[in-house]
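Consider the following input, taken from an annotated entry for Leucine-rich repeat-containing N-terminal plant-type domain-containing protein (Citrus sinensis).
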Amino acid sequence: MGNLKSLLQLDLSENQLSGSIPLSFGNLSSLTMKSPFSNSLSGSIPPILGNLKSLSTLRLHVNQLNGVIPPSIGNLSSLRNLSLFNNGLYSSIPEEIGYLMSVSELELCTIILVGLFLIQLVALHLCLHLRLHRWTVSVLLATALLL
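Applying the prediction step yields:
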């Protein structure tokens, strides 16, 4: 599938897919939407997804993904919608999330947070929908709400 350089949208939602996200997805340079939500995908979110500069929608929610949110997500300069909720992510929110200048919907619910958590919502000035409920938090929480 990584050879489909002209592919614009990939919707694999609700297909009972299992296994890890293939690294070859990082080669889909024209992709604007990736939605493999509501499956049984496992493993970590591959940092190579940060190479998808045209991606506007990344919906990985309701899977069995674990590990951390890769800082490379902050490279997705066209990203408008990011949904990572209902997985087994155990992470601090990377500072690079603040680089998502075009994001309007950010859903990070049900993530187990560890470490120092500092989110500067100033960088997310276009964010219209921010879902952060039902976190398990074992962190020092500091939020700058300078909107």
